[in-house]
Every structure is written in structure tokens, then in C-alpha cells.
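Note to self: keep these together.
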Amino acid sequence: MIKNAGGIRMNLLRYRVRTFFRYKDLIGALVSRDLKLKYRRSFLGYVWRVLNPLMIMIVLTLVFSSLFQKSIENFPVYLFTGRILYDFMKASTTNALKSVTVNAPLLKKVYMPKYIFTVSKVTSCMVDMVLSMGALLIVMVVTRAPFYWQFLLCPVVILQLYIFCCGLGFLLAELTVFFRDIQYIYNAVLTAWLYLTPIMYPLDALKNVKPLVFLIKGFNPLYYYVAQFRDLIYYGRLPGPRVFFGGWIIAFVMLGIGVWCFQKAKDKFILYI
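Structure:
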């Protein structure tokens, strides 16, 4: 019985993987559509993916650099290495949240796996983030920041965060189908998440508030990805085993939870969208 159950699960997993690759061209088309729609009628087009984070970085640097100029040597690069990951997480999960409800007219007419809309939203935001890396390179050149070979390992951290965002996106998309108020609650969560992540300040600034440091290190998933990203780019060192393996574990746990909740409820979506 146990062997049969295991065989059934493996066959189901193989079927889902084959189905995913069967629709890879459609996912690619949806990603391309999202990117084109985002910059449609824009004179500068994709250049905004570099200009927009640069302008935000300049404003935040002017506001916060004076507060932490003694404890942070190159504040623009320090800020950028955290902000770029937060912006990706925020944009991808916010878009994924509405991925099923927005495509309700299409889902009612044509059968296709519902998860492809969520995956395409997260993927298009990841492409946006990769383009934004150009702004980071500009900042590093202007501020004369050193380029370490560890920079080449950044895709590992991006992949971790991508997996995490897919999982969280599945969960949010499923919840939004049944509870539309989730989008408003999540906006408040994102604001708190920003300030509870050491993006604009060093974690050492909270050393006198030990419960908050424990909360950030123990229960803030984004901390693991920001810490790794900064280690590679800002400090020029390999991430420690705690944040490295913790990042992978958190990513796959979130993906497992998101996929399980999404798959369990997907057949009921048609009744609520």
C-alpha cells in the first residue's frame, strides 16, 4: 500500500512537471505581454527600469545617509542591494495576488492551468529586476565601489527569492479568489515588512532592542536573501551557512505551502471569480 501510494505521488509529480513544460511557451508569451504592456506608450520604455530605481535610490540616500553615514561606508550601494530585492518581492507578489481574478474572463472560456498566470507574473517581475541590476552597476561605478568575484553568484540568491515569491504568490492568489480584502491587508503587511528588514539601516542599529533583532533574524524571510545579496556584492564574501541554507529551506517550504493550497482550491475558483 505504501509503495503504491508513493508510486501514485511520483506519477502525479511527473504529470505536473510535463504539464508545466507543455505550457512553457504560453508562460513566455504572457511574460512578454506583461513587459510590453507595462512600458507601452512610454517614450523611454525599458530605460525606466534603470532610471526609476536610480531616482528612488537618490531620494532615499539623501534622506537616510546622514543618519547612518558613520556606520555604513557606501550607503548608496548598501541601500540598493537591499531595496532591489524588496522591490522585486513586492511587485511580484502583488501582481501574483491578482493573477487569477484578473484573468477570470479567459479562465471561464478556455481551459488552461491556472497557475501559469501566477508564474508568469512573478517571472515578468524577475525580468524587470534583472534589468534593474543595470542601475546597481551604475551606482557601483559612480561611487567607486569594488567589484568582487562573488558578484557572479548573485543568480543563486535571485533564484532563491524567485522560488519564495512563486510560493507566496500561489498562496496570495488562492486567498484573493475567496477573500478580496486580502489585497488591502497585504499592502499593510508590505509596509511593515519594509521597515522590519534591514534595508535602509544596519541591523547593528537595533542591537539594544534584542527581541526585534531576534524577530528579524528568526521570522523575516527577506532578511535571509538581503543578507546573502549584501555579502556577495557589498562585503565581497560568501554568505554564512545559516543564511545560505536557510534561504533555500524557506524558499522551498513557501513553495510547498503555496502549491498545496493552490492545488487544493483551484477547482473551486470558477465559482468565485
